[in-house]
Amino acid sequence: MQIDNRTDISLPTELLEAIAKELGAEDFELIVTSDEEIRKLNSAYRGIDAPTDVLSFPLAPAPGAPLGSVVISTDRARDAAERFEHDVADEIALLFIHGLLHLLGYDHERDSGQMRQKERELIERFGLPASLIIRSES
Question: What per-residue confidence (pLDDT) applies to 51?
Fold first, then answer.
């Protein structure tokens, strides 16, 4: 995992590495940035001119190729952590799980609950608060 932290937030690197290891994901990029930058990416690649919390950019599968990139907005992470009354490091871990699962091919919008189940398993394994998908189900 290559980390590009473009913010002043200290990342829970050991936790993120443990999550990636648990999922068997090693070769990918994590970019941690601001609402401004993620808004530009969201607009360019999804046609949505608004910031979002996490984006995943999977690369085409090829032998030896990296999985792709996960991009997290710390502005969104801070807001959610405050709103749901937990630590920003926990929120970053939740966003990381969500984005990394997408890189691994999971898709909660199209699957039959497999991504939700995998998120729940990881949340329990690492003692994290309720995730994006779980919060949206409530």
Answer: 97
